[in-house]
UniProtKB/TrEMBL annotation:
Mandelate racemase/muconate lactonizing enzyme C-terminal domain ranges (all copies): 153-248
Lineage start: Bacteria, Pseudomonadati, Pseudomonadota, Betaproteobacteria, Burkholderiales
Catalytic function, reaction form: D-glucarate = 5-dehydro-4-deoxy-D-glucarate + H2O
Pfam families: MR_MLE_C, MR_MLE_N
Protein name, as recorded: glucarate dehydratase
EC class (word): lyase
Pathway: Carbohydrate acid metabolism; D-glucarate degradation; 2,5-dioxopentanoate from D-glucarate: step 1/2
Organism in which the protein naturally occurs: Zeimonas arvi
Length: 418
């Protein structure tokens, strides 16, 4: 078989609306996700797809500028590409991990298309054909009529019931770190009541002090917790927390590369590693990390960074081949109002999404949708992920004490008609 050669790399920022703005410990997603779609084209007419978070002129330039490194490169030579653009000793100056991930997705997509097999078949073969997901619950701003707001325990319980009924989730995650921990504790208990014996997980994005995290953790020990995700910042504090709270710890923030994984093996701070195909630099590094987790008895779960269908496909193929994936994956996907892939958004059935069947990643871009959501990006621009539109001038400390007021119903001006 004649080798393919890369001839072009394109990046297209798109903005896809969310049902409502989502709050987190650093700020908010302002009612939309901004993503960059990457297309890698070969001399034999194949186009591979990639995706990463954020977008704008500098992101587009950073991706498309790599054509100087990759023109003529054979997309099958993935390890060579890693060193060509991601040499670890040069990464202090050129951290291209996330861009490399998008290019790796695209090259795997090309390989699969050329060989007529799916990426999961290419990467070890499927153990499962569908991946279970957790409902991902957020505190949310509502509109002027109060629709979509999630601020109180009652609103959270209602939202959980809606998501469970419409998608069939049996595992539920609360993204916290927004309101005072005792308010969030009330909310978490209301969530547990609302979903019966389903599994639960709480993730305040490292906002809690060790004291608050111990109090919260001990209070929820009797619930059906999968794990306690990033309650405090950093491995030393997580390690200390484990002495007080009998719930496995999890992270997607402080073990996101092999050096950190080695440190966590040497001194256990985290029991469950949330793998993210972008943060780790591709699908293959995640599979490699999962193997190390298997060896050292660490749990594996899947992190969501607010992806559209292209990156979601990478998570599905990764989940399909990792034997020790023993938790429902995370996805923000059900908060999105649309997607850019042919056939519209993928669907949950009984809380799971089927691994795409076609060759490569098994998803293609809907050109009309890409055009429409690129125009929306041009119209609205980016948003400040680490700012809360409801609290101008606010920023959090770590650990935080500057909580939002749960008694106050805010309707921030997002400068967008919703
Ligand atoms: Mg997290």
């Amino acid at each position: 078989m004649k080798a393919s050669r890369i001839v072009a790399i394109r990046a297209t920022p798109v903005t896809v609306p969310l049902e409502a703005p989502l709050l987190h410990s650093n700020g908010a997603h302002w009612g939309r996700f901004v993503r960059t779609l990457v297309e890698v084209e070969t001399d034999d007419g194949l186009v591979g797809l990639g995706e990463f978070g954020g977008g704008g002129e500098s992101a587009t330039a950073a991706v498309e500028g790599l054509i100087g490194y990759l023109k003529g490169h054979d997309p099958f030579r993935l390890e060579a590409m890693r060193f060509a653009i991601c040499n670890p000793t040069a990464s202090l100056y050129n951290n291209r991990t996330q861009i490399h991930a998008a290019l790796e997705f695209a090259c795997l997509d090309i390989m699969g298309q050329k060989l007529g097999v799916s990426v999961s078949e290419l990467l070890g073969g499927r153990i499962r054909d569908e991946i279970p997901f957790a409902s991902y619950l957020f505190f949310r701003y509502g509109d002027a009529d109060g629709r979509h707001e999630v601020r109180t325990p009652e609103q959270l319980a209602a939202q959980a019931r809606v998501l469970k009924a419409s998608h069939g989730f049996t595992s539920h995650k609360l993204k916290g770190g927004v309101y005072p921990p005792r308010h969030e504790l009330e909310c978490y208990r209301a969530l547990a009541d609302a979903v019966g014996g389903d599994r639960l997980r709480y993730d305040p994005n490292s906002a809690l002090s060790l004291g608050d995290a111990i109090e919260f953790g001990r209070a929820i020990e009797g619930l059906n917790n999968d794990y306690y995700e990033d309650p405090v910042w950093g491995m030393p504090q997580l390690s200390r927390l484990r002495e007080f709270v009998r719930i496995p710890t999890a992270t997607n923030t402080v073990v996101i590369n092999f050096e950190q994984l080695a440190a966590n093996v040497a001194q256990r701070a985290v029991d469950v590693i949330l793998l993210d195909t972008t943060f780790w630099g591709g699908i293959r590094p995640c599979i490699k990390a999962a193997g190390i987790c298997e060896t050292f008895g660490l749990g594996v779960a899947v992190h969501s960074s607010g992806e559209l269908g292209v990156q979601l496909a990478t998570m599905l193929h990764m989940g399909a081949v990792v034997p020790n994936l023993s938790y429902a994956a995370d996805a923000h996907y059900h908060h999105l109002l649309d997607d850019v892939i042919v056939g519209g958004p993928m669907r949950y059935r009984d809380g799971a999404i089927a691994v795409p069947e076609g060759p490569g990643l098994g998803v293609r871009l809907d050109r009309d949708k890409v055009r429409r959501y690129h125009e929306l990006f041009l119209e609205l621009g980016g948003y400040a992920y680490d700012r809360d539109p409801g609290r101008p001038g606010w920023y959090p400390l770590v650990p935080n004490a500057r909580w939002a007021d749960p008694a106050q119903r805010l309707v921030p001006d997002l400068g967008v008609k919703r």
